[in-house]
Design brief:
Elements (H helix, E strand, L loop, with lengths): L1 H63 L4 H16 L3 H23 L2 H4 L2 H33 L3 H7 L13 H5 L8
């Protein structure tokens, strides 16, 4: 009787180990996925702050450089589009368009010292964009960690079984030129 009990116990343990392994791997993938979602939400917070600063900057540029109506209108329309964007891909495209418009607006603003002295200009140009860049870097690191984990065995088997797929990183596109500004050399 004791050999039957021992055999039964071994079967239970043998069945429990794979189930426990699957559970641990799935929970790790779920935690990494949540980290990606939180990182994307951090980007959203910073982007919303940038959206809030844009109207003041547009008004400042309009006051000093009213002849740049096309540039101002493109920023206003790109901001409206970014605020309407719903899905991740739509937001990315809208933010890329908005960044391109802001770069043009800031180039107009940089030619006018009165605009450069304004708080909104320096905040939008520096601190806000640095925070957005930092949030995007954190998101991309989280996505890379999730994707790397998903590529490894046994997570690739477990992930496929539960319908998980690789996440897309947040490419800066034109934003890279805006954020990673080359420092001016002064003699």
């Amino acid at each position: 009787m004791s050999s039957v009990l021992l055999l039964g116990l071994l079967l239970v343990v043998a069945a429990a180990i794979p189930m426990l392994s699957v559970m641990l791997v799935y929970n790790r993938l779920a935690a990494l996925s949540r980290r990606c979602e939180r990182a994307l939400a951090d980007i959203d917070v910073q982007v919303r702050h940038r959206h809030d600063l844009i109207p003041s900057l547009v008004e400042a540029v309009r006051g000093f450089a009213g002849h740049e109506k096309g540039v101002i209108d493109s920023v206003v329309s790109a901001r409206a589009e970014a605020l309407r964007a719903v899905g991740s891909q739509d937001k990315l495209e809208a933010e890329t368009m908005l960044t391109s418009s802001i770069v043009k607006l800031l180039s107009v603003a940089e030619s006018n010292p009165s605009i450069q002295a304004g708080a909104h200009f320096s905040e939008l140009r520096g601190d806000v964009n640095n925070k957005i860049a930092a949030a995007r870097r954190f998101f991309n690191m989280a996505v890379n960690e999730f994707n790397a984990s998903l590529d490894q065995f046994p997570a690739n088997v477990v992930g496929r079984r539960f319908g998980l797929s690789a996440k897309r990183s947040y490419d800066l596109g034109l934003e890279r030129l805006f954020v990673e500004e080359i420092p001016a050399v002064k003699f």
